[in-house]
Amino acid sequence: MTLLAGDTALVTGAASGIGRGIAIALAREGARVVLSDVDAQRGAAVVAPLQAEGLDVRFIAADLAAEAGPVALLHDALEALGELSIVVHSASPRRLEADTILAVSDATWEQMLAVNVRAGFILARGAGRQMMARNIKGRMLFITSLHAHTPRNLPHYSAAKAAQTMLVKELARALGPHGIRVNAIAPGWIETDMSRKALEGDPARKNKILGRTPMARLGTPDDVGWAAVYLASPAARFVTGVVLPVDGGASIGF
After folding, report:
1. Number of structural domains the chain divides into
2. Span 79-128, pLDDT tens digits
3. What CATH number does the domain containing 26 carry?
4. How confident is the model over 202-247, as pLDDT tens digits?
5. Would the CA dihedral through 6, 36, 137, 21 be positive or negative?
6. Edge-to-edge strands of the sheet including 243-246?
7. What's the mean pLDDT when you consider all of the chain?
8. Which of 60, 106, 167, 202 is the most exposed place for a label (fewest CB within 10 A)?
9. Active site residue 230
């Protein structure tokens, strides 16, 4: 299918999980895509089979926690694609359940905020400037969380996602007059390596999650990928500044 034919996209955090699912979905809808992640080996392994399918994808390694990381990635992505019409910021450091409010370290706090908020802002600002300069009716998408609104004793994660949510609204308001749309997706429990590890050996917890999810299943990266395609496509041409839950209905009871 070709809903995004002619588009050029950057997807961060694309070596695994949700970011990978979004990058694949965008590419299969016709976009030329740069996948980026801090894990170069894993990222290259994702790109190779997609290129074998004939998809126009490439990988750029980037450490978005580093001070110069976001600017360097934006430069490299523009060099690779010529321009950007879609930016998806999915990168986020791995969160550990042990990093509670009394246990999380300063370094872990700083890294979480740096990747989610600082890098997200720098990428969006830079991409927005080039979209405006080239009169591109661009789209930006942040992957936030249901816990942007509901605490879960992971203060660095919840605070970062809450900041992202407000950043989306600020960007949407500022860039809307230029035809640039900015939205977010708040995934529920999605089947990724991280979620499988979190639920491994804990059937009671998994049953509790399924019990409060009206669709009675975990989501998949493809589920989030299709939502990203919708928000990036002409089907959502009058949608901006929203946070779309992709959670099987779990947020109804949040």
Report:
1. 1
2. 999 999 999 999 999 877 777 778 889 999 899 999 999 999 999 999 99
3. 3.40.50.720
4. 788 888 888 888 999 999 999 999 999 999 999 999 999 999 999 9
5. positive
6. 57-61, 32-37, 8-12, 86-89, 139-143, 181-187, 243-246
7. 93
8. 106
9. no
Helix-then-strand count for the chain, H and E: 9, 7
Catalytic residue among 142, 157, 189, 230: 157
Assign 254 a pLDDT band (cuts: 50, 70, 90).
Answer: low
Q: Which domain holds residue 123?
A: 8-192+221-246
How many CA atoms does the CB half-sphere of 109 hold within 13 Å?
A: 9
Buried-exposed string 207-228: b where 16+ CB fall within 10 A, e elsewhere: eebbebbeeeebbebebbbbbb
Contact 11, 35 (CB under 8 A): yes
Q: Tell me which amino acid residue 231 is.
A: L
pTM value?
Answer: 0.94
